[in-house]
Amino acid sequence: MYKDDFMTRCSAGLISLLTVLLCLAHTVSAQPPPARISRGNDLSLMAREPFRIFDNLYFVGIGEVGSYVIQTSDGLILIDTLWDLPGYTDYLLGNIRKVGLDPMDIEYVLILQGHRDHFGGAAALQERIDARFGTAEEDRKLMVEAFGEYAPRIDFIIEDGDTLNLGDTTLHLQVTPGHTPGTTSLRFPVYDAGMAYQAYFHGGPSVRSDDPAVIEHYIADLERIKRIPDIEVQIGGHYDSYLSGTGDLFDRAARLAARQPGELHPWVQPEEFQAFLDERIAIARAALQKAP
Ligand SMILES: [Zn+2]
Q1: Which residues contact 289 (CB under 8 A, 6 or more apart)?
Q2: Domain ranges of the chain
Q3: What is the CA 228 to chain-centroid distance, rounded?
Q4: DSSP E strands: which ranges in the chain?
Q5: Residues 6+ apart with CB under 8 A from 160
């Protein structure tokens, strides 16, 4: 009797232990693989003070990768959501508050590429803010491939030529594949003491494919961007997404902070943007010659 009871309890214990282990295994395998901590995403090294670049544009990212807020007359638009590592959601929300904005005013979140440093934080952010998240279809698929059921909710799909209107602001969206199959880029107005400029933000200006058709498409898009008149400002996804030799995001930020009255805004550099596109085209053409 005692033995039977013992056996019953033992097997019941074993079954519940197995159940717990199976559940754990299921949870662990269904979650996205933990991101590798590197110098570029270690928040203790990469945290940066957020800052205002233009009257309506704020940098709220880390040292390596950007996240930006566009302020409109009717709420905020967040561009990219950083990593899914511990501390990142609080860091991003904290940076938005530090520049004097309320994360609860975010109406839209645009994810420019389906790489983890740009979309990783989106799912956790969705538990904290009530906003509509958008990305291009091909990169929505990348996120699902990488994160499965833990991929962020996508409320709307961005298509080439779409516009997004919020209050007084219109964003012109382009799908510019090459870095990822659904890299999104945008054109929007920025204001410096009320003076308007057109800014262009290429969501992934380095091509990540050796398929000649993809590289050709990427070059054709850069040429299409070159033909857009009056782009005077370039916004970069990473700290160094600028023309070689012109200083990175933080060099520009230092110049902006030290700017004297009457000096031009360090981000207002129309020739640099054209030269940047030429440089990217030349690099891609060279890659094309080496392609099989
Ligand atoms: Zn990327």
Answers
A1: none
A2: 35-290
A3: 23
A4: 51-54, 57-59, 68-72, 75-79, 106-110, 132-136, 156-158, 163-166, 169-175, 184-192, 195-201, 231-235
A5: 173, 174, 175
In the chain, which stretches have pLDDT less than 70? 1-30, 292
Report the relative pairing of strands 231-235 and 57-59 from DSSP bridges: unpaired
Q: How many angstroms is it from 80 CA to the middle of ligand 1?
A: 11
Q: How far is the CA of 180 from the centre of ligand 1 (A)?
A: 7
CA of 179 to the centre of ligand 1 (A): 6
The whole-number pLDDT of residue 30 equals 53
Cα radius of gyration rounded to whole Å, the chain:
23
Tell me how far the alpha carbon of residue 79 lies from the centroid of ligand 1, in angstroms.
14
Residues 130, 5: Cα–Cα separation, whole Å: 54
Q: For the whole model, what pTM was predicted?
A: 0.89
In angstroms, what is the span from residue 261 Cα to ligand 1's centroid?
A: 37
Mapped onto helix, strand or coil, the DSSP state of residue 83 is coil
User: What CATH number should be reported for the domain whose range is 35-290?
Assistant: 3.60.15.10
